[in-house]
Amino acid sequence: MTNESDPDSQQSSRLLALPGELKNRIYRLALLQPKDTPILITSTGYDLGGGLLQTSKQIRSEALKIFYYENQFKHTVQRLDVSPAIHFCRTLAKVDLGPPSKQHRVSLLVEVFLTPHWPNLLEWLRLTHQGFMSLPVEGMTPSAGNLAFEAEKKVVASMFEAVKALKRQPWRLVREVLRGMRQVLVVLEPSWGDDWVEG
Fold first, then answer.
1. Could you tell me which InterPro entries the record lists for this protein (predicted)?
2. Which of 75, 90, 171 is nearest to 123 (CA)?
3. Which of 127, 129, 39, 138 is nearest to 83 (CA)?
4. Positive or negative CA dihedral for 146, 149, 155, 161?
5. Does the predicted TM-score (pTM) go above 0.85?
6. Residue 92 near residue 127, CB atoms below 8 Å
7. CA gap 193, 185 in Å, rounded
8. How much is the CA Rg of the chain, to the nearest whole Å?
9. pLDDT for 51-69, tens place per residue?
């Protein structure tokens, strides 16, 4: 039940009374970014298009598909930490967008800077082993001053292929195989041998 004295409720009620085509035009004006400006996914989340999606359950229900299907999202992976992209994908799984189709897919660009961080790489490999998220090798770019980038890229790509090939094996066995492969990375770049984890 809306409170007629509440200006926000009155605005929401007026919007909901409009024809669907007109409402969708308003939703697009409020929610869509220019085509060359993706919505950035960071460790603190992403912009949900101002307050429109929090106005009412009906507006949220009507506008969510426009927001997620018609915008482009981008996550830049730093130090091989994919947790923001994982959180984004888990959030999408909870949102009722209906089944994806050729016309309705969420566009997520993932840019990966190949910066040595073994604990984060190992976690990404574990998630891949679980079938959750593999590495877009074609999207990998070198971190500053990385002279062995092409060789490192091939080793990391082969690790992801090994994880996929060993998907029926227990993770503890796969992890041992990966630790052996890690030594090649350490030869190419000694900082791959660091086991520290950022606090």
1. AN11006-like (IPR038883)
2. 171
3. 127
4. positive
5. no
6. no
7. 8
8. 22
9. 888 888 889 888 999 999 9
